Amino acid sequence: MKILKQTDIYHEIAYTFQSLYNDGWEVADIRKFLEKNRKPDFEDEGADYWFSIAFWQWQTDSLEDLVFSKIKQIREELIGLGIYKENDRLFQKKIKELDVLVDKFQIRCEKPVKRKKVKPYPPLLYSGDCISIKLENGYYSAAIAVTRDDIPEISLDKNGGNIIALLDFYSKEPPNIKDVEKSKVLYISYREWNAGYAVYWYSAKDMKKKNNISTIGNIPIVKNIISFLRSPEKTQGKSFNYDYWQEVSEVIVNQKKCKIENAKPKDISLKEIVKDLKAWEYMLETRYRKVFKKQ
Fold it and tell me: How far from 271 is each of 16, 147, 223, 276, CA to CA, in Å?
C-alpha cells in the first residue's frame, strides 16, 4: 500500500472515514457520504478512491460486496489509473499493488479497527470575549477572541478553537475591561522568522489543559475583522498562524524582554477590531469609516 498511502485522496478518505466511524456511522453510510461529498475524477484517481474506501471498510471487518466488486473491476479493466499511465514503471508497480490488495481484502482482517470514543473540546470562548492570562512569571496579560471555531462535522480530534489577538497589557495585577479597551494588539518582533501581530488560532484542548485564563467581559467584534486584519497595511500577511497555547506565556514574556524594535506597521489599537464602545467620533479618516461601517 506504499503508493496508495502517498496520495492525497487516501488521506482525505482515511480522515473522513475514521471520523464518521468513531461517531457511530455505519460503513455503508460513510461510503454514501463520500460518494456525495467527495466525487473523484474517475479516469485519473478512481482506483485510489475505491481502494481507499475498500481498505478502511476491510479494516473494520465490514467490506461491502459492492465495494469489493468495484475494486475487482478496476483491477481487471485497469481503469481509474490515469495519473499512473504516464510513467510505465510506476504503472506496473501500481498494478502489483492492486493485486496485493485484492488478495488481501479476500481474507478477513485479523485485528479490526474498533470505534474510538473521542472526548470533544468545544471552543472555550465566544467572539469578543476578553480574557485575563496568568503568565508563568506571575504577571498578567490580556487577549480578545476574534472568532469562535466550533468543532467541524468531520473531525478526528473533536477539537474546536478560537482565533485570539494577544494584547500588549502586562502587569502584576489582573486586567479589567477598561485595560483591555486601552490595549494594542501585541506585535512580536523578538523572533524574526515569525515576526508579526500576535493574532493566532489556538485549540480548545490546549487552552483547557493550560487552564490559565479567566473571562473578564465581552466586546462585540466587527463583522469584517478577518479581512481587515489580513490587509497588507495592517499585518503584512503575518498573522493568523496556528500557535500553541502552552507557549503563550513564553511568547508574551520574551516580547516584553525584547529590546530591539523591528520595523513594524502602524499599531492596531483594540478600538480598531471591535465595535465602538461609546461613540464614533474618533473614526474620522475615510479608511476607518469603511471598516467600521455601522451594522
Answer: 41, 16, 14, 7
Mean pLDDT confidence for 86-97: 95
Answer for the pair 14, 156: CB distance below 8 angstroms, yes or no.
no
Q: Rounded to a whole number, what is the distance in angstroms from the first to the last CA of the chain?
A: 54
Residue 254: CB atoms within 10 Å: 13
For residue 79, the SS3 value is: coil
Going by C-beta distance under 8 Å and a sequence separation of 6 or more, which residues neighbour residue 14?
A: 52, 56
pLDDT in tens, 43-69: 999 999 999 999 999 999 999 999 999
* Distance from C-alpha of 186 to C-alpha of 197, rounded to nearest angstrom: 6
3 state SS for 218-267: ECCECCCHHHHHHCHHHHCCCCCEECCHHHHHHHHHHHHHCCCCCCCCCC
Contact 151, 122 (CB under 8 A): yes
Q: What is the CA radius of gyration of the chain?
A: 26
C-alpha cell at 166: 494577544
Question: pLDDT tens digits, residue range 149-183?
Answer: 999 889 989 999 999 999 999 999 999 999 999 99
Report how far apart, in Å, the C-alpha atoms of 125 and of each of 73, 134, 145, 195, 255 are.
51, 16, 7, 26, 25
Q: Which residue has the cell 467584534?
A: 221
